């Protein structure tokens, strides 16, 4: 019998580097970000293009980190045999923190281009909860490598996301110290102590254990 299949979707602007510390049993594939076809490409249309890498009849796990979790839920609408795992992500737009809901309502986010983070790496470090050393270095590299056009498109899609009606609820992993997308007052199956928004790196061993256990025990 074949082992589990994991499709990993990184966060906004990130790539396979954030998954390098994971040790998963089975087949592991990273769904790399695609360039948006336009600045107004709808999220559902983008998700359909991303889903082309996932066979329709394949039982698998879609593991999405942060904005990647939103895409995982959108892809799952098109792949009914897929199970979704959200890491440091949202299950519904109502979970957006107040500051992001305000930005959505007022369109203020247009006044703060993503390129600003490249000039304020220590601010990004605080929000993501990355520790000094290799974690900070990796976060800094990812921010520097992020395409500003893609980031602007993704931020708009994140803030305007209407949510999805999932056939099966997602399994959620969230850090207790997530400053960027805090999960307060919502159901989370696995709360990782001292985990920040960058816990896919900092808590990779614990996340690996949980994912392997899920894949081994759930049909």
Based on the model shown, name its key terms.
219 residues, alpha/beta, 6-stranded parallel β-sheet, 9 helices, globular, AB_hydrolase_1, hydrolase activity
Pick out the low-confidence regions.
none
- Write the CATH homologous superfamily: Alpha/Beta hydrolase fold, catalytic domain
Spatial order of strands in the largest sheet: 2-1-3-4-5-6
Q: Structural class, please?
A: alpha/beta
Concise account of the structure shown:
The protein is built from nine helices and six strands.
Summarize the topology:
Elements: E1 5-9, E2 27-30, H1 43-50, E3 60-65, H2 67-76, E4 82-87, H3 98-106, H4 116-119, H5 121-128, H6 134-145, H7 148-160, E5 171-175, E6 190-192, H8 199-202, H9 204-217
Parallel strand pairs: 1-2, 1-3, 3-4, 4-5, 5-6
Pfam families: Abhydrolase_6
Domain AB hydrolase-1: 8-207
InterPro entries: AB_hydrolase_1, AB_hydrolase_fold
Provide an overview of this structure.
By secondary structure, the chain is of the alpha/beta class. The protein has one domain: Alpha/Beta hydrolase fold, catalytic domain (Rossmann fold, 3-Layer(aba) Sandwich). It is 37% helix and 13% strand. The chain has nine helices and six strands, in the order E-E-H-E-H-E-H-H-H-H-H-E-E-H-H. Helix 2 links the parallel strand 3 and strand 4. Helix 1 packs across helix 2. It is globular. The model has no long low-confidence stretch (mean pLDDT 90). InterPro entries: AB_hydrolase_1 (IPR000073), AB_hydrolase_fold (IPR029058). One of its GO terms (molecular function) is hydrolase activity. Pfam families: Abhydrolase_6. Keywords: Hydrolase.
